[in-house]
Write a structure and sequence with these properties.
Layout lengths: L1 H4 L11 E2 L4 H24 L4 H20 L2 E4 L3 E6 L5 E6 L3 E7 L2 H6 L1 E8 L8 E7 H17 L5
Antiparallel strand pairs: 1-2, 2-3, 3-4, 5-6, 6-7
Helix pairs in contact: 2-3
Length: 160
């Protein structure tokens, strides 16, 4: 399928880049919050033995966050921008530079505090599930990447 979308593109030659070094910290906080949200009310209702369940949820959250961040990479080649995600269900999303329709860079309050940014690349004719979505980038990298991809999109002449 990849050779149909991007003829001549070799996925094995892609030089993948890592996300921000503190990406795990951001990801694990979300999972730990969910563990407390699920485990603490049960502990108050069922009893304090349920704190063992809370600890199990927290350990699972730590494990999942570690695996998700370890498998989160991105790349830009001369012809495409790519994002590789997932530890249980792995997938690679590719958008040819000539098909970029919109580039979005944003920073949540949590991103700003950790000096991170998030870049989303929408392709012409693709739905939300097929967009390149790169979280946990260093702020300057996100700014440069969004600028580079927006410039590539501006140089593209769309043919309808």
């Amino acid at each position: 399928l990849l050779h149909e979308i991007a003829p001549g593109f070799d996925l094995a030659q892609v030089e993948w880049r890592d996300v921000h070094p503190r990406a795990f910290r951001r990801e694990v906080k979300q999972w730990l919050f969910l563990a407390v949200l699920l485990g603490l009310p049960a502990a108050l209702i069922v009893g304090w033995w349920d704190l063992a369940v809370l600890a199990a949820f927290a350990a699972l959250g730590w494990f999942v966050a570690r695996r998700q961040v370890a498998h989160l990479h991105w790349a830009v080649t001369g012809v495409a921008v790519l994002c590789r995600k997932g530890w249980l269900w792995r997938y690679v999303t590719l958008t040819p530079l000539a098909k970029i329709q919109a580039v979005t860079r944003y920073e949540s309050p949590f991103d700003r505090r950790m000096h991170m940014g998030h870049v989303i690349v929408d392709a012409a004719g693709a739905g939300n599930e097929y967009r390149v979505d790169i979280p946990y980038l260093p702020r300057e990298t996100a700014r440069e990447l969004a600028g580079q991809l927006a410039a590539a999109a501006a140089r593209t002449e769309f043919k309808w």
